[in-house]
Design brief:
The protein has 22 helices and no strands. The protein is mainly α. The termini are far apart.
Length: 492
């Protein structure tokens, strides 16, 4: 064989071959006929065999000692050394070392867990050096018809430029298939009962998803499916990886939210998967200028889940309910405003449910519902009286004693009273708060007094209520004198 007839150079990356008219991303207007694709593949197989012979001769001539050492490692080396040698062969000549990549994929599917983990690391290293920063294109989507019109004939070896192009297109299609096998094997490892194997697969999935666009939808689905892992650490790690993904790629927020929504909607979904999914949504960071549609969509997801999956009367749903309300409160300031000023339509449909939550379930959920209602009141004045009545009644709610949300609760009271223009109502609240403080623990009493001081600073007219000697609003009760009855009888 004549090395001058070789189509490849050992120094160039495979993507650098596709330049000029035959670019990396060139696609045909229509999908090629299967007969043409088959003939091209047959031709490429002959080209690959010739390239393998060219590569072997080059290595024997210039790197004979290194090749002898590599063969020795493959025979008597350790498992880690064998995998490292396979990766090195793939990186040096990916087109002629396709079988080395297949060997690593086969090792990843073996029952030996140690070999499986080593193979997964090796494959990640190999694909990191092969994948381009774009999606891989199958051979049937390439403009083979245009190539034929320009004079390309499958089976002819005269036109070197066209043969190089077809060889790279075919290699990219095979690489796409092998990468798909790698991703499918990762999905199997994510279902392994051992936490260490799940952790390794989850890390690789995250790294691939953040670095390469190929198979991103499948990788994202795998990452979201791990929210329901039997190992809590793996579920928490999935949340962390997804949040990290959104920080690195903010434009993927809507895609991630839709995938999490699919996880929440699955029949027989685990309660833990729903909790971690909602927890993830509640931690998403929004941009006020760019993410109004995203905020609207995620609020719709929350209300859809609330409508179909939560019963406020059941104690086991309190944790989910609290997470849903927390998420709505976080997304609400970033939502778009309706033309009529009434806000998002979902709120109107669930107003009664929100008021119901205030009175049933845990007090922590009630606090979250009150926070949300206080935001809705600013755009929906028609529910103002109903909201303040519910807030007033919550001051003597027996559930408040054991709540861990006293700070949030007093905060919503201060904000609501500061925004209220009905001074007599604010005075009634102040009196009720003083009554509650009189019978509460010292820390909560101090917190109530501080809250009242903030209300007084924003409503000076309410402060005068404490300084006045007599208040016309108070009912005055006088004792009846004992001798009044006797004097009346004597007069008669």
């Amino acid at each position: 064989l004549n090395n001058s007839m070789s189509l490849l150079s050992s120094a160039e990356h495979w993507t650098s071959v596709l330049t000029g008219h035959y670019t990396q991303t060139s696609k045909g207007e229509t999908v090629c006929a299967p007969e043409l694709v088959k003939s091209v593949n047959d031709h490429v197989n002959h080209l690959v065999k010739e390239e393998i012979e060219h590569a072997r001769e080059r290595h024997e001539k210039h790197h004979g000692v290194d090749q002898a050492y590599m063969r020795k490692i493959m025979v008597s080396g350790t498992l880690a050394d064998k995998h490292a040698a396979l990766v090195l062969r793939v990186q040096e000549s990916p087109i002629t070392e396709e079988k080395a990549l297949d060997s690593l994929i086969a090792a990843m599917s073996k029952k030996n867990k140690r070999e499986c983990l080593l193979a997964s690391d090796s494959l990640y290293e190999a694909f990191s050096s092969l994948l381009p920063p774009r999606k891989l294109i199958p051979l049937s989507h390439r403009p083979l018809g245009e190539l034929v019109k320009k004079g390309y004939v499958p089976g002819e070896y005269k036109k070197k430029a066209m043969n190089r192009c077809v060889l790279m297109w075919s290699f990219e299609a095979r690489l796409r298939r092998q990468y798909g096998q790698f991703v499918n094997t990762l999905s199997t490892l994510l279902n392994d009962p051992q936490a260490a194997i799940q952790a390794k697969a989850l890390t690789i999935v995250h790294n691939l998803l953040t670095s390469y666009p190929e198979r991103e939808q499948e990788l994202l689905a795998l990452l979201c499916s791990s929210l329901g892992s039997v190992h809590k650490k793996m579920a928490s790690r999935s949340v962390y990886y997804l949040l990290l993904l959104l920080r690195q790629h903010p434009s993927m927020k809507l895609v991630v939210i839709k995938e999490v929504q699919q996880t929440l909607r699955r029949q027989h979904a685990k309660r833990s998967a729903q909790f971690y999914g909602l927890n993830l949504l509640s931690q998403i960071e929004f941009n006020k200028d760019k993410d109004t549609k995203v905020a609207d969509f995620v609020i719709g997801v929350y209300f859809d889940f609330f409508k179909h999956n939560i019963n406020a009367h059941e104690d086991e749903h309190n944790k989910l309910l609290s997470t849903v309300l927390t998420g709505i409160n976080r997304a609400n300031p970033f939502r778009s405003k309706g033309e009529d000023g009434e806000g998002v339509l979902e709120y109107k449909e669930h107003i009664n449910a929100l008021f119901k939550i205030v009175h049933v379930g845990s007090f922590n959920c009630s606090v979250q519902a009150l926070i949300l209602l206080s935001q809705i009141v600013s755009t929906t004045p028609s529910i103002s009286d109903r909201f303040y009545r519910a807030l007033y009644n919550s001051l003597i709610d027996p559930r408040m004693v054991s709540s861990s949300k006293h700070t949030l609760y007093l905060s919503v009271i201060v904000k609501s009273l500061s925004a209220d223009t009905n001074i007599p109502r604010v005075k009634s609240f102040a009196k009720r708060m003083l009554q509650v403080a009189l019978h509460s623990d010292t820390p909560f009493t101090c917190a109530v007094l501080i809250a009242l001081s903030k209300v007084f600073s924003s409503k000076p007219s309410v402060r005068s209520m404490l300084l006045a000697e007599d208040d016309d609003d108070e009912e005055v009760f006088t004792d009846v004198k004992e001798n009044n009855g006797k004097e009346e009888e004597e007069e008669k």
